[in-house]
Amino acid sequence: MSVDRDDRDLEAELASDAAGQRGIPFDAICTGCQRTRVKRAQPEDVGQHPQIDPMSLDASECTSFKHVCHRCQKATFWNPLAVLSGLSASEDGGDDDT
User: Fold this and answer.
1) Which of 6, 33, 45, 92 is the S-S candidate for 65 at Cβ 3.0 to 4.6 Å?
2) Residue 57 within a domain
3) For the segment 15-57, what is each residue's pLDDT rounded down to a tens digit?
4) 95 part of a folded domain
5) Cα–Cα distance for residue pair 1/64, rounded to 1 Å
6) pTM for the whole thing?
7) For residue 81, what is the DSSP state?
8) Over 70: is that where the pLDDT of 60 sits?
């Protein structure tokens, strides 16, 4: 079952290559075009300790991070709106790199 936010399929956005390969999933807004999408960022990219538990993370405590915006067609800064820890947890039972 997919998670919807404003009629968006967040699971599909997370599965997209545009979200990134590794990191905590965030619902974030591009500072260039104001488009909101799911993007992955490492904890240290958002000003957090590398070992932080994503379930305890609050988006308001995170800094902007750089990621590709396909609409702007360049790397831009994204402001975290929400930590999508529920999506992250649903992936834990998925594919491993082993």
Assistant:
1) 45
2) yes
3) 999 999 999 999 999 999 999 999 999 999 999 999 999 999 9
4) no
5) 29
6) 0.82
7) E
8) yes
